User: What shape does this take?
Amino acid sequence: MYKMSYAEVMEGDARQARAREQEALDHAIELMKRAEAKGARSPEASEAIQYVQKPWTFFIENLTDPNNELAGALKKDLISIGVWTIAEADRILADSSRSFTPLIDVNKTIRDGLV
Assistant: This one.
C-alpha cells in the first residue's frame, strides 16, 4: 500500500484549500456582477454583500491565527484588504450611488493570486 508523506498530504490540503478559496471568490464575483447590473438597492445587492463578507471574515480569522504560516507582511496586507472589502460592502449598502466595480476588481486580483 502506498503511503503519502506528511509533506505531500499537507501540500495537497493547501492546494485544496486554495481551490476552495478561489471558488468562494468566484461565486462572490458573480454575485457582485449581478448586483452591479441590478443596482445597489436590489435583492441581488444584499445577497452579494452578505456573501462577499463571509469568506473575507473567514480569511481574516485564519490570517490572525497564530498558527498561520504566511509571511507577516503578506498576512498584514491581506488582513487590510479584507477589512477594506467588508467596509466597502457596508458602504455600498449605505450609499446606493457606489459601484461594486472596485470590490469586483480587488476580489479578482486576490482570486488570481491564489494559484
Q: What stands out?
A: DSSP finds four helices and no strands in the chain. The mean pLDDT is 89. The helical segments are 6-38, 43-63, 72-94, 101-112. Residues 20 and 80 are 21 Å apart (CA to CA).
